[in-house]
């Protein structure tokens, strides 16, 4: 269950992949619902998107707690200093942007004309703060910009993992599979 000096443990792996899948689905759904979905189904899509965001936020907080409790495996010997800095920085930024996009989305729900009936894990009803419509456009833009920045960073993260696997031929990717 726990990480070793060179491998991610099962808890970290499950949280990583569940969060990764949820993030990609949420990003795709967010784009689809704002560009292609019928206007008549907008509130239902916002509710589904918000529910996924709340669940994602909970899993992210669990991941961060587990990461604080269970140290990450060491990078392979001989990893250049710039790669160590890039890895640490990009992981921190992935966590920060995921947290920020979730919080911005939650704040955005407090600017809608009608409240959402979104739940955390299908159990606990979550309401957005009553912020008023005057903040809607600013929070919508903030949520969207963070989401696109997060998508760009995810693409870089995937490219780096593939570089380690296919070009550098080390075990960085294999130890998370």
**Helical segment count:** 4
Strand content: under 5%
The major sheet is characterized as:
2 strands, antiparallel
Tertiary shape: elongated
Report the CATH topology name: Fumarate Reductase Cytochrome B subunit
Walk me through this protein's architecture.
This protein is mainly alpha-helical. It has a single domain, classed as Transmembrane di-heme cytochromes, Chain C (Fumarate Reductase Cytochrome B subunit), CATH 1.20.950. The chain has helices spanning 10-35, 42-69, 81-109, 136-167, and strands at 118-120, 124-126. The longest helix has 32 residues, at 136-167. The two termini are 14 Å apart. The relative contact order is 0.13.
How would the blueprint of this fold be written?
Blueprint: H1 10-35, H2 42-69, H3 81-109, E1 118-120, E2 124-126, H4 136-167
Antiparallel strand pairs: 1-2
Describe the structure using short key phrases:
single chain, 65% helix, mainly alpha
Short description:
By secondary structure, this protein is mainly α. The protein has four helices and two strands; from the N terminus they run αααββα.
């Amino acid at each position: 269950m726990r990480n070793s000096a060179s491998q991610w443990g099962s808890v970290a792996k499950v949280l990583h992949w569940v969060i990764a899948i949820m993030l990609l689905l949420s990003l795709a759904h967010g784009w689809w619902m704002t560009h292609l979905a019928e206007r008549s189904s907008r509130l239902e899509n916002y509710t589904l998107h918000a529910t996924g965001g709340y669940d994602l936020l909970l899993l992210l907080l669990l991941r961060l707690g587990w990461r604080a409790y269970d140290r990450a495996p060491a990078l392979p010997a001989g990893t250049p200093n710039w790669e160590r800095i890039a890895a640490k920085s990009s992981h921190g930024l992935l966590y920060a942007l995921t947290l920020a996009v979730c919080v911005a989305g939650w704040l955005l729900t407090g600017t809608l004309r009608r409240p959402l009936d979104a739940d955390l894990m299908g159990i606990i009803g979550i309401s957005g703060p009553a912020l008023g419509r005057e903040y809607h456009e600013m929070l919508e833009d903030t949520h969207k910009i963070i989401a696109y920045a997060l998508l760009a960073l995810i693409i870089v993260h995937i490219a780096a993992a593939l570089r380690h696997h296919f070009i550098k031929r080390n075990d960085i990717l294999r130890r998370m599979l």
